[in-house]
Every structure is written in structure tokens, then in C-alpha cells.
Fold each of these.
Amino acid sequence: MVNLQLFAPVGGYNMNVLENCFFGFAKRSILVNVSNIPDVDLVNLAAALQDSYYANPRLHHISSAFMPSRDEIYAITNKLFSVLFPGFFGRQDLSHHNIAQHVQTELEGLSRHLYRQILQCFNCRKSRKNNNLELRAQTVTQLFLESLPRIREVLFCDILAAYKGDPAAGDTDEIIFSYPATIAIGTYRLAHQLRKLSVPLMPRIMTEHAHSLTGIDIHPGSMIGKGFFIDHGTGVVIGETAIIGDNCKLYQGVTLGALSFPHDESGQIIRNYKRHPTLEDEVIVYSNASILGNVTIGKGATIGGSVFLTQSVPPGCMVTAKQAELRYRNRCDTLSRGLISDYQI
């Protein structure tokens, strides 16, 4: 018998034990019978894998600058939430006597980990290499941390919008502590600030992790005003070039997406152009509506559930889908003749 390490899930990420974790799974030891391990030709298998690495250079990162750590970026996001929402995330025994020291200590740790991951993000992008990456990463880290009070002010507006817009919310504590939109929108606002500072990779890692946790997909490149609320949230998609004004509200299943992508002369998809919708202030979009393309939904407009929209809407208008036609039939006669199907195609 030999003692092998397998993995068991844990509830969160701890920056102090990341070196002992793999994709958020903590190690635990069990006994395994060596005789049950398959007999694999490891030499030839390793050689075959190595050949495939060099055959597909886009799928490896060998002899290059180190990539950033996804696990550490997840942990940084958790730490940022503990700073933005003290007492809700992270340490619980906070008081007026220890809050100042606590925040300072958290920021000191964050600054080190942020600097390292931002530097790694700059390093691994060849087009961004220069002789001042360390200074650039230091400056970006400082600017990002200095933006946290402003981000918190906008998140406060988002939390209030959720409370005012959801009669099922008992209080703002419930919204902060349990609503998936809080995690998705909060992570987006942090990632969007990093993207504005031209940090590659890290913003998308953050928002895709929030996507995996909440089912809400917000691209960090989108621009979203204050007082934003996503009710329920599952299945919401907000594309890279979408613009959302102040005090807008989306329900579950809403897509702010693009139409078919144009290609250049070489057949490659054209990037970096406005291809997603713009929602002006105070727009409401109900569940499962899809708004596609570079269209504008005017201020105060309402888009009904299950609408498929590819054109602009003037301010103050309401757009609804044609209601389904209801057909009533007396099933007694059908059943008496031995027919059980109630479906028509």
C-alpha cells in the first residue's frame, strides 16, 4: 500500500495555502493499492504529448514568461470583497476599534499579491514587453487600489437599486451576502477598472470565475452605469462593447449580444468595433429577451420577456412579443376514441 494525494473540495480560496491546492481542491490522504494502478508506457506517452505540444504552439506556454496564477487571482478577488464589504466576507470580528488596522493589513497583503499578478500579466504578453514592466506594474497596482473607494460608492448604488427593485429582498444584508448579482457585478466593477488600466488576462479571469459561480456573464470591457441590478441572474450575457446607462435593470436569461461577425479579406474575424447594444438610462429588460447588434434602446424603454430585437427603440417605448395563441380542446372525445396525443405540430 502507498499513500497517494487525492483532492477533496473546499469552500473557498486561502492565499496562505494556495501552494497546497489545485483548482480550489485541498489535499487529503487515502491509501491506494499499488497493484491496481494501470501499467502505462509513460516514456512513450510523455514523448507523444511533447510532440503534440510543439505541433500546436498556441496550446502551450513553454520557454516563455510565467503565466499569472488563476488561483491567486481568485484569492485576490475574495480579499477585495472582504475590503469592499467588511464583515460580510472574510474576517467576522470587526469593530470600530480594529477596523483601521484590519483594512491597512489587508491592503498591504493585497498590494503585494496584486503587484505580482499584474506583473506576470504584463510579462506573458510579448507585445507589452519593455524595460519598465516593474515600474508599470507598481503604478497600475497603486492606481487600482486608490480606485477602491470610488468602486465601493458605485456598488452602494447597485445594492440600493437591488433593494428598491426586489420586493423579495428582506434587507440590504441579504442582497450583499446572498444575491449572485452582487458577486457578478462587484467582480465586473473590479475587473473593468483593471481593464481600463490596460492589464491583460486578469480582468477576464476574474469575470469568468464569477460567471462560473453565478451563471452571469459580464465582459469586463462593457461599460455599465451606477444603480445596476440583475434580478435572479442565471443566463444573463453582457457582451464586450455593450453600454448600459444608470439605473437599468435586467432579468434572468437576458442577452446583450452581437449579430454575425464580419470577416476581413484573410477570413479572420474583425475585432475591436462596437457590435453590442447600448441601453440608455432607466431601461428595463425582462427575462429571456435578446437584444443583438449595435442598436440603442432609448431612455426609460421597457423590453418585454422573450423579445428578439435587432433594431433600435425610441425612448419611453415598450416592446413586447406577440402573445402565444391558446387553443382549447375538449379532451374527453379524444380519449374515448383511444387517442392520447394532445400535441400538434
Note: Residues 1-26 have pLDDT under 50 and may be disordered.
Amino acid sequence: PRQFIFGLEDSGLDYEAGDALGVWPTNCPELVADMLAALELPASAPVPVENLGDLPIVEALLRHRDIARITTDILGFIRDRSGSKVLADLLEPERAQDLKQWLEGRQIVDLLEAFPIQVSAREWSAALKRLQPRLYSISSSPKAQVGEAHLTVGIVRYEHGGRPRRGVCSAFLADRAGDGEIPIFVHKSAHFRPPAGKDTPMIMVGPGTGVAPFRGFLHERRARGDTGRNWLFFGEQHAATDFYYRDELQGMHGDGLLTRLSLAFSRDQAEKIYVQQRMIEQGAQLWAWLQDGAHFYVCGDAARMARDVDAALKQVVATHGGMNAECAAEWVAELSRGKRYLRDVY
């Protein structure tokens, strides 16, 4: 991932640790050109854009339409226009798993090349969803990084069929944002904040770029002069290349701001190790911290990691709290209701 630093002077924007930053990207110009070529549409063809009147389609695709993500609607549109039996078969309900596999790594332009269609510029523009902002957890504290908002962004790049494909917003930030002005806004968090109590212990589970808000939390607690203990679980694939903020986090651990730093690098040994296993290994201490009133935070991948961490937390509570599974689940639910178990997952 890369760190991006936004200067907020004169922007009128302010944030708190735990908030997210919304970024309005523009699409990749090469992808726009590929799409127009696949559809055999002239770049200058006028299309209506919400609140802006008619714009050349090249401009609409660059700034106002989601031209990457394949939606159910766009699949249906291309199936109907192409008359492809192959695509129609793939869209049958019983082929859902095959479709998911087939779509892996593909973008809309790949669909157009596999199933050519003829369509007017206006029809095509109307068929696409509006380009949406991307939200990133802010990885700084306004008390420590004054006048700045930091983001920690994993840059998505891969090849499909020998052609480069990129994440819409991560590639925009990495390749095209430069030092110019970028349209951003602050997305306020309802509850995802460091503990209000200066002496409240804090446990953070943030593998990968999920570490982002916790860097902000730690800087915030230091700037506030909090005395509460802090424990971070961080994991990635390889310590040598994937230990984000290594020097900073090890420095915080060395000077006592980070009481405990538990690491899980999944590919550095024969058996894969993840943060949830570190939680279980250190379950007795984790339970003791929770008994002392610790707040428990999770940030990152919702599909797998957050679910596995939730299961590990319940296991720790059951084992070290001497409860059955049902009571442990209720104990964790109560932790959540009391705003002591907070998640920022995506």
C-alpha cells in the first residue's frame, strides 16, 4: 500500500480519529478509450449527465460513470443486446457459482469484448451506474498531524487476459492525482472512535490496510495524554515486505504507547498464521483486558477476517470466561451493545 497525505488548509474540512475520507476519482483514460473502441462509439458523441446537461461521452465515462464494476443490470443489458446464448446460460440462477468464477478479475470492457453489442452513446451512458466516491479510513489524528489527513491505500493492479487492470480509486491516487486538488469529503463515524476514557484499555485488530485507523487512534491517544494500555494485532503475508508502519509501530511499542504488539505474518512459515490465531493463543491476557473494561476494535475485510475474528473473540470469552457457546455469544453481543466492540469493516 501507499500513504497519501492530504493538506486540509483552506479546505473547510475537519475530522476526528476514526472518520473516513471520501475520494471522488476519475476513471483511467486508457480504459475509457478501450470501451469506446469496443463499442465503436465516437468520443465526441453527446450524452446527458445529471445536472450538467450534455457532455461528450468521453468526458461522461471519464468523470461521471462507473465503467469498471460489472453489475447485474449491465450483465442483463449486454445479454439482451448481444443475444449471446453463452451469457444467457451463465445468467441462469443455477449457474450462479460458475458466473461468479467467470467474472473474477473481469471488468465491463472484458464483457464487451467477449459479447460485442451495438448501442448508441446515449443508451450506453444511461445503462451505466454513476461513478461513486470511495471511502478510506483516515490513518492520522488531527491533534498530531495538524492540518493533514493521511490515508493508507492498497493499490489494486493485476492482469486479465494479458491486459492491465487497475482499481478505480487506488490507481487514480497512485497514477493520476499528483499534487493537484482532489475532490474529497469527510465521512463522519458514528461510534468508531478511540475510548473517551483516558485510562480505558484499547484492543485493536487491524490486519493489512485495516491498521489505518489504529495508527490514527494511537497518535490521538498520545496527543491527548491518555494513560490507557493499547494492544494492536497486525498481520499480513510477509514481515520483510508487508509490515506497514513498521518503524513507527515498533517505536510506539518501544516507548510504551503500544503496551502489546501481536504480529501474524501468514506466509513466513510453513503453516499460515492469522491474527485470530494470535488472539486465541493470547486468550488469557485478552480476557483479562476485557475484564478491565477494554474496548475491542476491528478494521478490515468483512467477508472473512472480521467473521473469523468475531468467532475467535467468542472462543476466547467461552474458554477464559468459563462459559458455554451461547453465553459467550450473548456476552459478546452485550459488549457490542455497550459500544465496547466496534467494527469498521468493508
Note: The chain has a mean pLDDT of 97.
Amino acid sequence: EPPYHIVTPVMHLSRQDVSRTFQEKLGAPPTDSAEELTMIARRQLRQDFLTADMGVTGANFAVAETGQIALTENEGNIRLTFSLPRIHVAVVGIEKLVPRVADLALFWPMLAHSGTGQAITGTCSLVGGPRRDGEPDGPEEFHVVLLDNGRTRLLADVAQRDALHCIRCGACLNACPVYRTIGGHAYHTTYMGPIGCVITPHLRGRDDWAHLPYASSLCGACAEVCPVNIPVHRHLLQNRRNTAGGWQRLAFKFWAWTVQDPLRYRWAGKFLRCAGPFAKLWTDTREWPAAPAQSFRDWWQKQNPHPNPLPYTARERGLKKISSPPSLGGEDQGEGESRSS
């Protein structure tokens, strides 16, 4: 099962779900105790760590000054992954490079605070090479794979290169109303949520992932919580522009033309209320909601009739009937008289 969240990959599972999985895969007895479940996982994983020939990790940051990779976690599994097997391979995106070790004093607390609300995560490690003579643990071989995979193309895009500033804290996922509604598995990609919808089309191909930027309400909550100030909602809009085909551009132009005039908008609403059976491109993957018998505008006018009715088109276009102001004088003035100022 793929991760559900960048930081907390099994946050969608309850203790009962985990217990059932342990029963099926490990033959463990059923339990609802988090402590007992932790011990079951520890006993199994420790044996796997001790017998593995190679451990593969990522890296939160890579320090150019010293050639080290920086890893941060709360569980300790990453440290066991790189210290117990004979070979350690770290796969690192090229955007994870930072100039100096001192930069970690900023990025490590920022990552912890934005990701889980901690001042610092439980375990922070710096790995700079294989085990040296006399050292009791560590790998015999250490290899770092610097991964491009479309990142240099994104770096060359002046309008969107700041998406590479992402530190994978997951704050935008926590704030996104769409992610909170549909969950991480609905995205079908490694990086889910708002930032995933921004970078995945660049890393894995725009044609296959052109739908992702539309999984957003463009409310801007992601940009507000981003610790490195990535304007995520603006990048989502830019991705929509980049992936829009000819018919999509024509459709958006037609929509813009329609909503600029109240009368056109009114007739478009009447058409859409009758277009359900013909909207096959939409209904193939979505349910077409039942259309109301009348628009809210029509209902409101029936409930609140206009005291001085004007032609419908004139009212919609914002034209107002010019009438005399109420009398400002005494009772001797006629009802229809007005005073100029």
C-alpha cells in the first residue's frame, strides 16, 4: 500500500487496522494496544535490519560543504537502515543540496515545526561515508545517487523554479481542504496534496498528470502555511495553463465570454440544466448532480418581486431607473416635486 501522507504515511489506519495487518502478515495475536503493536513491529523489523545486505534511504538535505547527507525521523528506523546493512545507498533529489552544515540549524527545526509541530524531531543524523577502521557500526559501502528526473527542466523555468524549494514538510497537505476530503491515495502518485500537484507533472510528465492541478479549490491555504513561501496556488494555475489543450483553451475563453454578461450567464444556466444526458465526457468519471427546476435568481425574484419592475435584461446589465429624490421640504411641497442641490 502506498503512503497516505508525506510525513505520516499510515495516518489513515486505526490501531485495529494495524492489528489485522499484523495478524495476516506476521501471525501476531490481535491487540488494540499501541505499545504492543509497536513491540510486534520492532521484533520483526530488527531481524530484517540485521539480515539485510543493503539499506536504501533518501535524504532530507545534502550538505555540499562536507559531502554529508542529513536525515531526520522520529522512529529510528532510518538510522537502523543505514547503520546495520553492509551497503547504504542514499537516493537524493538534486534540490536537497544546501551549502553549509550551519544551514541545518535553520532547516531542521523548520521541517520539524511545519511537519509535526515539534521543536526538533527525535532523531537527526549526519552520514558522511562508510564505516572507518575501529568503528563498531555503519556500512562497509556508502553510495549517494543524485536524482534529476526532470528537476533541471523545472529549474530552468523561471516562473516555477521556486517549487524546488519544497522541504517536504507536509504542511500544505494538512491545510488543503481537497486533500483532507479525498485522502492521499486518490492522487496515485508519490507526492500527493497541493505540492504534489505542482511538481508531479514536471517530474513525471505533463501529459499523463495534467489532471492533478485541477485537484484544488485555489483557496490559497497551502501558500499561507508553506514555511518556504512557495505560492502553491499560483503554480497550480500555471500548471493548468501549461497543460491546457486547444479545446480546453477554447472552452475557457467561451466561459469567460459567458460570465461577462448577466444575460448570457442566465441562458448558459438554462442550457446546463438540460445538458445532463449529453455531458458524456464529464459523466464517464463523475456523477452528474440533479439540476434544480429553476435558478436561484429566478426563485429569488419570485419571492421578492421588484417594486418598480424593469425589463429583465436592463436590470441584469446594472441599469437603474432614474427617479426623483424624496421631498426634503415641508408638507406644502407636492409629492412629485424635488429639490435640486
Note: The chain has four domains: 1-51, 54-147, 154-243, 262-315.
